[in-house]
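In full, the data:

***
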Amino acid sequence: MPVKILDIHIHSRYSRACSPDLELPKIARACEIKGIDIVATGDFTHPAWFAHIKDSLIEENEGIYKLKNENSKTRFILSTEISCIYKHKDATRRVHLLILAPNIAAVDKFNRILEKRGINIRSDGRPIMGLSSKEALKIILDIDPGFMMIPAHIWTPWFSVLGSKSGYNSLEECFEELSPQIRVAETGLSSDPPMNRRLSILDNINLIRELGGNLDEIVLAGGIAKSKLWLQIIADVTGCVISLPEETEGAAFGGALVAGIGTGIYENAETAIQKTVKIRRGVCQPDPKNNELYKEMYEIYKGLYPALKQTYARLGELREKQNA
């Protein structure tokens, strides 16, 4: 299965604090330099940007678009981010949500519904609306089940579904009976790695395998790759072979490759990587006995949240009382 690199969260020139030079052909060229295969359009709720999307892109495969008049390798998916600010369960909620759309027609229907509800989609690329997160999810699913909603930067204190200042204690509390429709979450740049690990690395790996991917090898880089103990733990937990890049100074090496692309030494990121990056395969092998033990422990772990759900809710209520 070929590997594709995606960037599903960007904005347009119509979003605050974004470059006025942002337009789809320039975004496509930047993606070619950076090695991004598929990029989101961003901001399809803004009428002017949506017009630019329709003028610039043509559907190549279902849900995948390309530039009409340029020979670019970059492909696009339709996306936007919305800011929902509303009252729910006696608290003000501020939640940012990414939305991926299946096609142009579905976007057009969604934008029309928002305008009919009196929502100002012209003021900013990321519109602010009084819809609840659940209500916004219901709207897009009623239009087309091919829509996908992704809670954005879930750990930031403000404007995130799990934010400590204006979010929830769980996805179920936010989306209620529609929570099974939330299949992906964006951790964001402000994500705290130890907190992410509490979600369990196996959740993501099981998802990849259920979707038909073949995850037998993990390539690790950075500080964690220098610890033999951590390498063995990751191999045992995941059941995957661990490989390492020969170059240990990843950031500096990556900067040199970008400079090489910019000066014309390499045609693009893919070529630069093929010519320079070498991987030491099979540095660490999983221990089958440990892997089976971790699987049993993981099943126990998965039962903790349902068993403690009411306890978490009570702790959340105590926190609210303390902050009142």
